[in-house]
Amino acid sequence: MPDEISQRNLSYGMQAGFIRDIPINENRTIAFGIGLGYWVYSYYSNLLVTETMNGFVYSVLENDNDFKRNKIETHMIEMPLEFRFRNSNASSYKFWRIYTGFKLGYVVGGGRSKFVSDEEKISFYNSDVRKFQYGLTFNFGYNSFNLHAYYALNNLFNDGVTLNGSDINMKPLRIGLIFYIL
After folding, report:
1. Is the pLDDT of residue 93 over 80?
2. Which residues, 6 or more positions from 143, have their beta carbon under 8 angstroms from its beta carbon?
3. Beta bridge partners of 61
4. pLDDT band at residue 2 under the 50/70/90 scheme
């Protein structure tokens, strides 16, 4: 993201979905996975979005005391495509796994910008948030608890969205935990 923009608070995401496992070897240790799910992401930062009659204007909140919360939120329908490797067997559900792949996503209803200060609360749908998003995924772990990483290959905002005359090139990087229920 641009140098003058910084993350504030802990940005978070919640996801729920299913992935169909399609084994490609007899031992079922190598597979492809294809899925569908619903995800909610909240990106907290000092990037202020203001809705005007002519569209949206972007600026930077210089002082942390000027606001309590400032975020961009997306609700997405996503489809992960994965190559899966694990050391599983037919008698145990506890195994090591490495799943890597690609995720396609579509923002449902547009992104929502929300600003909260002591004096006001402003919330609106931001059509500058890119509807179609995609990126790389990597999941690694043992049993149900696994590390998850996602790196977007395209920007969070549409082309032509600027801050002080420069394009806002924000590509989300999400790192967290993912739980598998078999």
Report:
1. no
2. 93, 94, 95
3. none
4. low
Amino acid sitting at position 65 = N
Residue 44 has φ and ψ, to the nearest 5°, of -95, 130
| Residues, the chain | 182
CA dist., res. 17 & res. 78, Å (int): 9
pLDDT computed for residue 1 by the predictor: 61
Q: Let me know: does 156 contact 43? Beta carbons within 8 Å.
A: yes
Residue 45: pLDDT above 80?
yes
Do 129 and 170 form a contact (C-beta atoms < 8 A)?
no
Distance separating alpha carbons of residues 8 and 68, to the nearest angstrom: 10
Report the candidate in 146, 112, 116 with the shortest Cα–Cα distance to residue 127.
112
CA–CA distance, 158 with 169 (Å, rounded to integer): 9
The vertex-21 CA angle with 15 and 23, nearest 5°, equals 155
| CA angle (108, 113, 115) in 5-degree steps | 155
Say whether pLDDT at 90 is over 80.
no
Q: Supply the pLDDT for residue 119.
A: 86
